[in-house]
């Protein structure tokens, strides 16, 4: 897969990053380099390798999944700058 300047511009727009027109070729090149590294990772044989959580073997802490004090909606929403109909109200970010 190869990223051209138009695709790099589209990615920058989606990420809400301002990229000058003269910087698009360098950005497209960086994207292509990153995709090349990802393709190299796909070639690695991982057969028989167990997934790991950390570089040092450790067991994750677990707790019982128990429902505790509920019904505190008013208390939770008391510090919200804007709450409507029992929910947090936030500004619209999707155009």
TrEMBL record:
Query: Which InterPro entries does its entry note?
Result: Asp/Glu-ADT_sf_sub_c, GatC
Matches recorded under Gene3D superfamilies: Glu-tRNAGln amidotransferase C subunit, N-terminal domain
Report the SUPFAM superfamilies cross-referenced here. Glu-tRNAGln amidotransferase C subunit (SSF141000)
Answer yes or no on keyword Transit peptide: no
Give the residues annotated as coiled coil.
Answer: none
Q: Which reaction does it catalyse?
A: L-glutamyl-tRNA(Gln) + L-glutamine + ATP + H2O = L-glutaminyl-tRNA(Gln) + L-glutamate + ADP + phosphate + H(+); L-aspartyl-tRNA(Asn) + L-glutamine + ATP + H2O = L-asparaginyl-tRNA(Asn) + L-glutamate + ADP + phosphate + 2 H(+)
Instruction: List the molecular function annotations (GO) for this entry.
Output: asparaginyl-tRNA synthase (glutamine-hydrolyzing) activity; ATP binding; glutaminyl-tRNA synthase (glutamine-hydrolyzing) activity; transferase activity
Which biological processes are named by the entry's GO terms?
A: glutaminyl-tRNAGln biosynthesis via transamidation; regulation of translational fidelity; translation
Swiss-Prot/TrEMBL keywords = ATP-binding, Ligase, Nucleotide-binding, Protein biosynthesis, Transferase
What is the annotated signal peptide range for this record? none
- E.C. number, please? 6.3.5.-
Looking up NCBIfam families in the UniProt record yields: gatC
**What role is this protein assigned?**
Allows the formation of correctly charged Asn-tRNA(Asn) or Gln-tRNA(Gln) through the transamidation of misacylated Asp-tRNA(Asn) or Glu-tRNA(Gln) in organisms which lack either or both of asparaginyl-tRNA or glutaminyl-tRNA synthetases. The reaction takes place in the presence of glutamine and ATP through an activated phospho-Asp-tRNA(Asn) or phospho-Glu-tRNA(Gln).
Q: How does it assemble?
A: Heterotrimer of A, B and C subunits.
Question: Could you say which protein family the record assigns here?
Answer: Belongs to the GatC family.
Q: What is this protein called?
A: Aspartyl/glutamyl-tRNA(Asn/Gln) amidotransferase subunit C
Q: Which organism is it from?
A: Cribrihabitans marinus
User: Corresponding gene?
Assistant: gatC
């Amino acid at each position: 897969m190869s990223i051209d300047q138009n695709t790099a511009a589209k990615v920058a727009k989606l990420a809400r990053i301002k990229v000058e027109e003269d910087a698009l070729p360098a950005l497209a090149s960086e994207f292509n380099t990153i995709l090349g590294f990802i393709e190299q990772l796909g070639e690695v044989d991982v057969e028989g390798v167990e997934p790991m959580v950390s570089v040092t073997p450790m067991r994750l802490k677990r707790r019982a999944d128990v429902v505790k004090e509920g019904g505190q909606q008013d208390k939770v929403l008391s510090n919200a700058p804007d709450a409507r109909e029992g929910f947090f109200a936030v500004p619209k970010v999707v155009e």
